[in-house]
Amino acid sequence: MRARRGAATRPALFAALSPTLLVFQHVDHEDAALVGQLARQRGMAVQTLRPDQGDPLPDLNTCANSIALVLGGPMSVNDRNQQDMDWLRQELDWLTAWHQQRRPVLGICLGAQLLAVAAGGAVQPLQAGTPPQPLKELGLGAIHWVADPSDEPLLQGQPHSSLVLHWHGDRIQLPTDATLLGSSLHCAEQVFRIGAHAIGLQCHLEVDGHALKRWIANDLNYVVNALGPEGPDRLGREWHKLGAKLQEQGRHLFNAALDQLIDISQSH
Asked: What is the pLDDT of residues 207-237, one digit of tens each?
């Protein structure tokens, strides 16, 4: 009987020690995707919040052993002062306090922009060419790792470049204490960290084929504006050819990120 009671308590103890992933989602079609899958495989609880729909933001004092995952959306962090975007300003204020306590956070796309601004950086429209013209960076493309993998646990085992999905028209101005990890041809600030507790990705490695179809359907005008009338079909063909490689590299990077952030979460 004693052995049976011990066996029964081990899973409960493991669950108690596993962090909670606090997911800040901003549109229906962009969810935690691969990051959520990997978190659940580790026994983590996943709690999804919709600040855009009025969900209350969690009390920092009740978020012990938690990791914030701040996702993307069609809005810009610079929209936060518009009349109907109070929720975005409030989310930024929450994230600023979270960051100041050096609590673990992973920001993707809009989430990376919010993280950068929370840490003292800024966001501006992405431009390219001479004279500079607005640019939407959209589609499957490469980023190049610009930091030394021997100094960066996140990059250990990564190739010199990785395939990602671009889907943005803004550019991050990094805060002074950020470390740039990865860049693309048109946008230098693709992947960064602030200390060990905060990781930002302007690009996407969390999507799968089903998610991409939802993104195209919900953001069709944006895709056509960026890539032309053939853009949706082109994205589908690119994914059919390269999607498995993107997902493999995403699993590698996000597992390394979770390893790093879980260690930090257990000290809070």
From this structure: 999 999 999 999 999 999 999 999 999 999 9
Q: Measured between alpha carbons, how far is 9 from 98 in angstroms, rounded to an integer?
A: 32
List the one residue out of 158, 163, 155 whose CA is nearest residue 180. Answer: 155
Cα 253 to Cα 72, 88, 114, 248, distances in angstroms: 18, 28, 21, 9
- CB contact at 8 A, 247 and 254: no
Beta-bridge partners for 46 = 21
Please state the domain count of the chain: 1
* CATH number of the domain bearing residue 101: 3.40.50.880
- Of 22, 67, 46, nearest to 258 by C-alpha is 67
Q: b vs e for 135-151, b when ≥16 Cβ sit within 10 Å of the residue's Cβ?
A: bbbbbbbbbebebeeee
Q: Tell me how far apart the alpha carbons of residues 81 and 239 are, in angstroms, rounded to a whole number.
A: 36
Handedness of CA 247, 249, 231, 50 (dihedral sign): positive
Look at the block and give the residue holding tokens 């190739």: 159
| pTM for this predicted structure | 0.92
Structural domain for 90, as ranges: 2-265
Q: What is the pLDDT of residues 104-149, one digit of tens each?
A: 999 999 999 999 999 999 999 999 988 989 999 999 999 999 998 8
Answer whether 106's CB lies under 8 Å from 142's CB.
Answer: no
Q: Would you place residue 268 in the very low, low, confident or very high pLDDT band (cuts 50, 70, 90)?
A: confident
CA distances from 25 to 90, 111, 114, 196, 249 (A): 14, 9, 13, 23, 23
Q: Give the whole-angstrom CA distance, residue 18 versus residue 210.
A: 29
